[in-house]
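From the pipeline queue, job 12 of 40. The input is one protein chain; the requested action is below.

Action: predict structure.
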Amino acid sequence: MVGGVKLGAAQYMSRTMEKNDPVLRARKRMGLETCETCESRKYRDVSNDPAVSFKTPARVSPEASASAVAAHESQHVRHEQAEALEKGRKIVAQHVQFSSDICPECGRAYISGGKTTTVTKPESSPEPGKGQYLDKYV
């Protein structure tokens, strides 16, 4: 029974073949039918950071997208921290932003990407102490 109407097997099969059918969409969201869009979705890093994952496109399921993207962005965070330490810079702020989306075919929500922003500044030299502005030789 669909929408209060009892359907025969042939009618049900033809109805499930419709692309925007809410029953088919629900079956895809529950994992009972294959969602081609989710199956073909790949994640790829577009930054110039060579020390992180996803340099080659990789498939990640919608259920695993949040943890995969979070782990990937934490690689960026750690790499930026190490680079700042190596260059003698101080980290002023670090921010990770996640993007989410909804699959148009099955309606599942997933994390579609992330962006790490790091702000650094040069390490400040210590303040000169009393008498350090004068030459020691007279």
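Job complete. Helices lie at 9-16, 22-29, 36-40, 65-86.
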